[in-house]
Design goal:
single chain; alpha/beta; seven-stranded parallel sheet; 10 helices; 51% helix; binds NADP nicotinamide-adenine-dinucleotide phosphate
Length: 282
């Protein structure tokens, strides 16, 4: 099955990126699957992808990979799925400038740099779909997730702005806003936590113990967790509908907080978010 459309996806080593890459390949897309570790690139190649190394913290890696892919497609790229990212958990008081810098280099600056490399290609070919994998935490904040919340709020801001700036072009932008999805997200968040947060000397030491239990818990840690196929469905709509939606909610918590955010005052919403995010407890 071939549908003649191609797409570049970041963060295909696991979770949502891996699932969406396979799902689109199975639907006939030419998928350029990218990952930052060479071992993952080799594995993806062995699985039949045209796989490339792309580290979002590294401009050279972004540019080299885009050049390689465009050379293979005669400078044509129908779609971009910005997906590769991680969450750094920890209280805002415990976030160093370096920790924040790495979080934003990956989750924000890399995404915008890559997007800005692709937009001229899409303008030239008079067609393009750009899909940003944001989060429910891109519009509803939760305690101990400040760095990640801020990175996803930033992605929402950039995407809303870009949508206005590209309004008169045939390029459509969509945000996907998942709640809990099965992936390696918590495993990778734990690694970032261990690397950047000095839990032992923190005022939040007790809360971190509960948080670490949640991050280490095998299987789903939150109610209403969905498999990554739930995202694939929305990505396919954003790629194939004549009118891609600006926002795709995925999972019950996203619908719930989207609704509550519209009807509640900030102080009322804070009470619910405080409880939902573990508040002072994790
Ligand atoms: N799972 C959820 O509950 C959930 C909810 C809302 C939103 N999301 C969003 O979904 C997206 C995918 O996450 P996931 O849940 O599938 O988690 P995941 O299994 O941890 O996958 C994250 C992917 O991002 C890649 N990545 C991390 N840093 C990178 C870098 N510097 N350059 C390139 N790739 C990098 C990872 O590569 P490595 O293997 O090399 O680390 C991995 O391929 C993220 O944008 C996340 O914010 C997830």
């Amino acid at each position: 099955m071939i549908n003649n459309k191609n797409i570049l996806i970041t963060g295909c080593s696991s979770g949502i990126g891996y699932c969406v890459a396979h799902g689109l390949k199975d639907s006939g897309y030419r998928v350029f699957a990218t990952a930052r570790a060479q071992a993952d690139v080799d594995r993806l190649n062995a699985e039949g992808f045209e796989a490339f190394q792309l580290d979002l913290t590294d401009s050279k890696s972004i540019n080299q990979t885009v050049d390689q892919i465009l050379a293979l497609t005669n400078n044509h790229l129908d779609a971009l799925f910005n997906n590769g990212a991680y969450g750094l958990p920890g209280a805002v008081e415990d976030l160093s400038r370096d920790a924040l810098r790495v979080q934003f280099e990956t989750n924000v600056f890399g995404w915008i740099e890559l997007t800005n490399r692709i937009i001229p290609v899409m303008r030239k070919q008079d067609y393009g779909r750009i899909i940003m994998n944001s989060s429910v935490l891109g519009f509803a904040a939760m305690a101990y997730r400040g760095a990640y919340n801020a990175s996803k709020f930033a992605i929402e801001g950039f995407t809303d702005t870009l949508r206005l700036e590209l309004k008169d072009t045939p390029i459509q932008l969509s945000l996907i806003e998942p709640g809990p999805i099965t992936s390696k997200f918590r495993q990778n968040a734990k690694k970032a936590f261990d690397q950047f947060i000095d839990a032992e000397h923190s005022l939040h030491k007790e809360q971190y113990k509960a948080m670490e239990r949640r991050l280490n818990k095998p299987g789903p840690a939150a109610p209403f967790t969905l498999p990554p196929e739930a995202i694939l469905k929305r990505v396919i709509h954003a790629l194939e509908s004549n009118n891609a939606k600006a926002r795709y909610y995925v999972t019950v918590p996203t619908y719930l907080f989207g609704y509550l955010k519209r009807i509640l005052t900030t102080s009322m919403l804070d009470k619910i978010l405080h409880k939902a995010g573990g508040g002072g407890k994790r």
